[in-house]
Specification:
With 146 residues, this protein is an alpha+beta fold. The chain has two helices and five strands; from the N terminus they run αββαβββ. It is elongated. It holds the Pfam family DIX. InterPro entries: Axin-like, DIX, DIX_dom_sf, Ubiquitin-like_domsf.
Length: 146
């Protein structure tokens, strides 16, 4: 019987080698922050997908007669909001809501898997194009053409 327990492979340390440097706390904090943000983005994307899925199921069960339309006009920080009859709104109908006439570009918020945030503003150009619905609303941006 052995009283002294030894590892099966002896561990030999070279005394001439310097010890490993101490980890930098700022680097460790930055890496932890990056990982937390990455995890938060993944969770938000998953939540947005689930919300979109449940909202699309609700739309099939109980269609609403009106839809809320909100839009940001030429970079203004506060959006305009109105209600439109029906669930299908075209760009032509949307243009009729604008009180200021001129040449504009129109962008509408929609769910997208292309980017980490889960949404995009998609440009719509054709008057007969149906506008995307995002979280039971149509959310647009109107930008003046220079």
């Amino acid at each position: 019987m052995r009283n002294n327990v030894q590892p099966s492979h002896p561990f030999i340390q070279d005394p001439t080698m310097p010890p490993n440097p101490a980890p930098n706390p700022l680097t460790q904090l930055e890496e932890a922050r990056r990982r937390l943000e990455e995890e938060r983005r993944r969770a938000a994307l998953l939540q947005a997908k689930q919300r979109h899925k449940s909202l699309s199921n609700k739309k099939q069960i109980s269609p609403c007669e009106n839809v809320t339309v909100a839009y940001y006009f030429c970079g203004e920080p506060i959006p305009y909001r109105t209600t439109v009859k029906g669930r299908v709104v075209t760009l032509g109908q949307f243009k009729e809501l604008l009180t200021k006439k001129g040449f504009y570009r129109f962008y509408f918020k929609k769910v997208s898997d292309e980017f980490d945030c889960g949404v995009v503003f998609e440009e719509v150009r054709e008057d007969d194009a149906i506008l995307p619905i995002f979280e039971e609303k149509i959310i647009g941006k109107v930008e003046k053409v220079d």
